[in-house]
Specification:
Layout: H1 4-7, H2 14-17, E1 22-31, E2 37-41, E3 46-48, H3 51-61, E4 72-82, E5 85-94
Antiparallel strand pairs: 1-2, 1-4, 2-3, 4-5
C-alpha cells in the first residue's frame, strides 16, 4: 500500500534546496491558496509557483498545465526579485525535453546543402 497519501503534503521551501539541486516529476498542477498555481510532485511534495517559475515552465512545456504532467524538473536554490528586494526561492529548471514550438531546432544529419565540397 502506498503510504504517501497518509503522510500529508509538504510545501517545498528555499531551505529544502540549499543543500543542492534535486529532481522531481510533476504529478499534478492545480490552483492553490491566493490564486497561485501549485505543482504536486510524484513524491507528494508541493511547490507554489512564483511568476519566474511559471514563465520557465510555460517556455519549456507550453502554457497548458496538463502538458506539464509527467515532466521532470530540477529544483535548486536561488533568488528572485520581489517588490524591489531579492528573496530566497526554490527555482525550477526543465529536464524533460521541451515540447512544440518551444523546442530547439533539430540538427540536420549530413546530406544537407552545407555538405558541398569547396573547390580550391
Amino acid at each position: 500500500m502506498d503510504m504517501r497519501k497518509f503522510a500529508g503534503s509538504t510545501f517545498l521551501k528555499p531551505v529544502d534546496a540549499q543543500s543542492g539541486p534535486f529532481t522531481e516529476k510533476i504529478d499534478a498542477v492545480e490552483i492553490g491558496q491566493f490564486d497561485k498555481p501549485v505543482i504536486t510532485f510524484d513524491d507528494g511534495r508541493k511547490l507554489s509557483l512564483n511568476a519566474t517559475n511559471t514563465r520557465v515552465l510555460c517556455r519549456a512545456y507550453g502554457s497548458e498545465s496538463t502538458d506539464w504532467i509527467g515532466k521532470e524538473v530540477e529544483l535548486f536554490f536561488g533568488q528572485v526579485e520581489y517588490q524591489g528586494r531579492l528573496q530566497d526561492s526554490v527555482l525550477v529548471r526543465p529536464i524533460s525535453p521541451v515540447i512544440g514550438k518551444n523546442a530547439p531546432p533539430k540538427l540536420r544529419k549530413s546530406g544537407g546543402d552545407m555538405d558541398d565540397s569547396i573547390p580550391f
